[in-house]
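Minutes, methods subgroup
Present: GH (chair), OT, SY

1. OT presented the first of two proteins processed in the latest run. Sequence and structure tokens recorded below as shown on screen.
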Amino acid sequence: MKEILTKEFNVFVGADSLTQLSELLIEKSYAKVFVLVDNNTKKYCLPLLKPFLAQFQLIEIKAGEIHKNIQTAQFIWQQLQDNNADRTSLLINLGGGVICDMGGFAAATFKRGIDFIHVPTSLLGMVDASIGGKLGVDFNGIKNEIGLFKHPHLIVVNEDFLKTLPKEELKSGFAELVKHSLVADKKMWYTLQTIEDITPESIKKYIYQSIKIKVKIVRKDPTEKGIRKALNFGHTIGHAIESASILKSRKPILHGHAIAVGMIVESWLSCQLNLLSTKDFNQIEKFLSLHFNRLVLDFDSKDLIKLMGHDKKNENGKIQFSLIHKIGSPKLKINCEQDLIQQALTTCLQLK
């Protein structure tokens, strides 16, 4: 088992991580323990967690980004209240990015805050959503519009949960591994390119490395005023695509797939602004297109640009991007005119 233990982070990664969780529960003697699941993690992941828990009460919500909203948060608060949770209670979030974001948000605001633990079951949750203290819900179709910063008491990363994932969910998390390499670890980027098939075994060794990258960046900039913005590479475009898919009441596009498309478009912008070489852009575009089938999008580019206007990186009414200067090196606070964004969407995604 590997550990990251700092003032802000208590992360345990590996086969014995659930044992560490069990020992902490004995040590802390919480008045009540609640486990938040969705209908998928209840079926596939709860059986792996149960042997490490004594008594607990289950809170179940529906799976999917479309349910990451204030109404679901209210349901979680109601369940905690109905079952007499107090400030000595604990909420364990067993699931992917949606469960970690929303469960943490519900716990951090219930009675002004109760302890919560993330047990991420998706690759996306393991390397991204569970790390960094960002919590929140979507609002009016805008990703993570309502939220706060609060670190979990413990993060338990057990790679055995990856075996429960559908292939597309595994690929969704892989996009965040790629992002971490492109903004912070050139060597990791070239190593990732040797992966021919995304499987739990082929990506397992990169999980701890990816977590270390995010922890290092977040510790330097906890509330995203500077270098942490680098972790938003691909997300200005990607989040707009996700939000558009939610607003159109279709099956939402998976986060990592939208971010993969976003990284292609934002790499093109980096190239046009003479930050990234054409050779590096072609390499990025080829690799991401190999693992992520080009999404067939029928969104209007003007609608996407309007959604980008809600991005939390924006300043003074201008759409701001976190791009890359070269592979492994980010370039922050880049203002892009709407005409150039329009050209990027037209060129890379064939959007009108």
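2. SY then presented the second protein from the same run.
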Amino acid sequence: MKRQDYLSWDEYFMGIALLSAGRSKDNNTQVGACIVSDENKILSVGYNGMPTGCSDDDMPWDREGAFLDTKYAYVCHAELNAILNRSSGSLKGARIYVSLFPCNECAKAIIQTGIREVVYMDDKYADTDSIRASKMMLKMSGVNFRQYDPTGRTVSFSL
């Protein structure tokens, strides 16, 4: 008889998004993303961080101050990183799992690449204009979004 307590696809892919978030050097917000095909194959992953070639040690990570002295001018969001990190092929019809609901800029990239569903963990900025615009564009373009429903299960494994 087969094992019954294996991970669901949502648990598996959100787990990978959360694991990817652990790569972020941001002291305040770590976001991860995992893009999967309609056949449940991983197409790409990403996390919020500085663009390739920009040293994490030399770039600002502050949240306040003059714009050019904050992270906001430089950080590449997890969703965009995952979209740009794909090795080849189309993302048309894919799903993206993200630990934080995508901002309006990431929503544009999601829509343009043909991703059809966003599965998100947290929506802590739901009351901001960025997220309102994001949700409006996603709805208008037919991209479905739904909040991940955690099972409360602790993931563990043995070798």
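Chair's summary of item 2: The chain has a mean pLDDT of 94.
Next meeting: continue with the remaining queue.
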